[in-house]
């Protein structure tokens, strides 16, 4: 068990996981990242394809550059959807919330279950992060930018790979309050 790991049942981790948007300066070491990748690759995978590949970005300047590139793209997407741009037009807003690490789950495969595999790996990774007192958050707002040729070149990601899940990672700066959930809606319950 790592220094930062806490004893937690799976169900406790599911309930404790939060999307964290406020991080300390503490950098996540590579040992911890490898443990998280181990959790990720143990997710279920259709036809046992294991289609995932990972990119790990720990350069905060680079993350800031990508954030600046991504914000207007996402603000445009919000506009098309008829939604307000929110913080995405604010010069100081960092789409990655100044987290020290961004993990990208990528794939060059195109099967119908590839995205599902990658998202299941993502949830494993985020639950494991929670059990290691790390915060995480999916950053869907960066997806369009991350999949542009410009950004792939910057990240040394070959063109044939798609970035499917971007997850920021870091040590939480304070508590993140729990979010509300609707009750599960059951449309059929057979005996
Ligand atoms: C596909 C997906 C995309 C998301 N994109 C963003 C994002 O771009 N920025 C962000 O701050 N949170 C993002 N989130 C996090 C959600 O806002 C968050 O999961 C939700 O508000 C519930 O909060 P909780 O995860 O702490 O329970 C995303 C979550 C998912 C599943």
UniProtKB/TrEMBL annotation:
Query: Which Gene Ontology molecular-function terms are recorded?
Result: oxidoreductase activity
**Pfam families (UniProt xref):** Nitroreductase
Q: Which InterPro entries match?
A: Nitroreductase (IPR029479), Nitroreductase-like (IPR000415), Nitroreductase/BluB (IPR050627)
What residues does the Nitroreductase domain cover? 14-171
Question: In terms of domain of life, where is this protein from?
Answer: Bacteria
Q: Which Gene3D superfamilies match?
A: NADH Oxidase
Q: What is the protein's given name?
A: Nitroreductase
Q: Which organism is it from?
A: Nitrosomonas communis
Q: What taxonomic lineage is listed for the species of origin? A: Bacteria, Pseudomonadati, Pseudomonadota, Betaproteobacteria, Nitrosomonadales
